C-alpha cells in the first residue's frame, strides 16, 4: 500500500507539472479545452466517468485530468506555430496479414523517457461492448498507444504533426471506441468514416482473419486503406496524397526525415523474407541503423526521447508480448486478452 501511495503521489506531481506546462503555452485558450471536452463527453460519455473516478482516487481536480488528457492538442498547436513546445518523439508500427503465428501487429513506442514509468496495461470489461486489453498511459481515459479486443481486432497509433486539426475525438478515445465496438477491420474503418475526428495521427489495424487497415486521420480529410493480405507500415507522417500537404516537419535539422526513413526501413525489412512470425517481429523492432532510420531508438539519438517499449499483438491467439525497455534487450513477457 505504501508503494501504491508513493506511485499515486508521484503521478499527481507529474500531472500538475504537465498541466502547468500546457497552460503556459502561447495560444492556450480555455474555451477550446471546454469545447473539446464537451464534444468528448457527448460522443463518449464513458470518458467523463473514467476521469471522474481517477480524480477521486488520486486525488486531482477533474479539470486538471481533462487538460492532462487533452494537452497534446495544445502542444501540437504551439509546435506547429514555432512557439517552442518540444516534439513528442515518434513511433514505428507494422502489420502482417499472415505468419506462422497468424496475423500480427507490432509497435515501438517512442516518447520522452519521463513517460516510461507511467505506462500501464489495462484490462477493460465494459458493461456494454467487447472486453479489451490495451497498453496505455496512467491517467489517460482510453487506449493511448495500442490494444486488442476479445474478438482479436488489434490497433496501434502513431502521432503526426498536422495542419488539419480541429475539435473532434482524439486517438485515445477513437481506439477505445473501436476496441469496444468493432470485431473486424472493416467495422473499424466504417466507424472512423462516421466519427468526428481531431486529426493528428494514424491508426494501423489487423483482425484475426488477417485483414489489414490503415487510417490516416485529418480533421477534415480522412484516408482509409484496407488490404485482404500483405503488409502495412505506419510511422509519423501521412502517405496518402489526400493528406500529404497537411504534414508538418518539426524535428531538428539533424533528424528531419526520420519518419520517412523509418517507414522506408520497415518496408525494406518486411520485403524479401519479411516477417515469418513473432521472433522476426521482435528482431525488426530491435533494428539499429543510423539516427534517421533506427527503429529501436536509444536516448542518445534525440534526448530525452527514446523507445520506451515494444509490443507485438497476435490476434488469432488473442495474446501479446511486451518489453518495457529497449526492444534490443529482449526482455519480453506475455499477456493475454
Q: What can you see in these coordinates?
A:
With 337 residues, this protein is an alpha+beta fold. It has two domains: 2-80, no CATH class; 91-336, Penicillin V Acylase, Chain A (4-Layer Sandwich), CATH 3.60.60.10. The protein is 32% helix and 23% strand. The protein has eight helices and 13 strands. Strands 3-4-5-6-7-8-9 form a seven-stranded antiparallel sheet, covered by helices on one side. Helix 1 (2-23) packs across helix 4 (62-80). It is globular, with a radius of gyration of 19 Å. The two termini are 27 Å apart. The model has no long low-confidence stretch (mean pLDDT 93).
Shape: globular
Q: What structural class should be given to the helix and strand makeup?
A: alpha+beta
CATH architecture classification of the largest domain: 4-Layer Sandwich
Superfamily (CATH H level) name of the largest domain: Penicillin V Acylase, Chain A
Distance between the termini: 27 Å
Output the CATH topology of the largest domain: Penicillin V Acylase, Chain A
The Cα radius of gyration reads 19 Å
* Percentage of β-strand residues: 15-25%
In the predicted model, the low-confidence regions spanning at least 5 consecutive residues are: none
Amino acid at each position: 500500500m505504501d508503494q501504491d501511495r508513493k506511485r499515486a503521489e508521484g503521478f499527481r506531481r507529474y500531472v500538475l507539472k504537465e498541466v502547468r506546462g500546457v497552460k503556459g503555452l502561447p495560444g492556450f485558450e480555455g474555451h477550446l479545452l471546454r469545447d473539446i471536452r464537451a464534444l468528448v463527453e457527448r460522443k463518449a460519455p464513458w470518458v467523463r466517468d473514467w476521469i471522474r473516478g481517477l480524480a477521486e482516487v488520486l486525488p486531482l481536480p477533474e479539470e486538471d485530468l481533462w487538460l492532462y488528457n487533452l494537452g497534446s492538442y495544445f502542444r501540437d498547436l504551439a509546435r506547429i506555430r514555432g512557439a517552442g513546445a518540444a516534439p513528442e518523439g515518434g513511433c514505428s508500427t507494422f502489420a502482417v496479414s499472415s505468419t506462422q503465428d497468424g496475423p500480427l501487429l507490432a509497435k515501438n513506442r517512442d516518447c520522452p523517457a519521463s513517460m516510461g514509468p507511467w505506462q500501464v496495461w489495462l484490462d477493460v470489461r465494459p458493461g456494454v461492448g467487447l472486453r479489451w486489453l490495451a497498453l496505455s498511459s496512467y491517467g489517460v481515459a482510453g487506449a493511448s498507444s495500442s490494444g486488442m479486443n476479445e474478438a482479436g481486432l488489434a490497433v496501434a497509433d502513431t502521432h503526426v504533426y498536422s495542419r488539419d486539426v480541429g475539435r473532434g475525438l482524439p486517438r485515445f478515445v477513437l481506439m477505445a471506441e473501436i476496441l469496444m465496438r468493432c470485431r473486424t477491420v472493416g467495422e473499424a474503418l466504417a466507424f472512423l468514416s462516421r466519427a468526428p475526428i481531431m486529426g493528428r495521427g494514424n491508426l494501423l489495424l489487423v483482425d484475426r482473419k488477417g485483414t489489414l487497415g490503415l487510417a490516416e486521420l485529418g480533421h477534415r480529410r480522412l484516408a482509409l486503406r484496407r488490404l485482404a493480405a500483405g503488409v502495412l507500415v505506419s510511422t509519423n507522417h501521412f502517405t496518402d496524397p489526400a493528406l500529404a500537404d497537411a504534414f508538418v516537419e518539426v524535428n531538428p535539422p539533424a533528424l528531419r526525415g526520420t519518419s520517412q526513413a523509418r517507414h522506408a526501413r520497415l518496408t525494406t525489412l518486411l520485403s524479401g523474407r519479411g516477417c515469418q512470425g513473432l521472433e522476426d517481429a521482435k528482431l525488426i523492432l530491435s533494428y539499429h541503423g543510423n539516427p534517421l532510420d533506427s527503429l529501436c531508438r536509444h536516448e542518445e539519438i534525440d534526448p530525452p526521447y527514446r523507445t520506451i517499449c515494444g509490443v507485438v499483438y497476435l490476434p488469432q491467439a488473442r495474446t501479446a508480448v511486451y518489453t518495457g525497455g529497449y526492444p534490443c534487450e529482449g526482455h519480453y513477457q506475455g499477456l493475454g486478452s
